[in-house]
């Protein structure tokens, strides 16, 4: 009987932890889209360990809310803000909204240098490489087509 009670208690606690993780995923832009990681705030990346990484500690210090300071911080020191890495380069994302972009996101705890995402005047953010290509195309002389 005691064994059954212990099993039920463990199952209940495990379920609560999983639900809490899903709750936090909703509070960070693109948290569910970071490749190979299910818990971006934990040192092991899975949430099996309760230890927080630098991003997790910053998120906890921010009151478990995506704030302007958390967005502008660079918790992994790679030169990209947390917002740039998670699809919110303008630090405008709110819970439930669609981030500016949803692909090419990176982990705000693992230093890597993806293409720089910039905050543009439209609702579609562009990478710095795309903007550079666009500027170069605009600088090329236009070809004239001769009519007969």
TrEMBL record:
Biased composition range(s): Basic residues: 131-148
UniProt superkingdom: Eukaryota
InterPro entries per UniProt: S-S_Temptin, Temptin-like
Domain Temptin Cys/Cys disulfide: 19-109
Keywords assigned: Signal
Signal peptide: 1-20
Region Disordered: start-end pairs: 76-148
UniProt name for this protein: Temptin Cys/Cys disulfide domain-containing protein
Native species: Phytophthora rubi
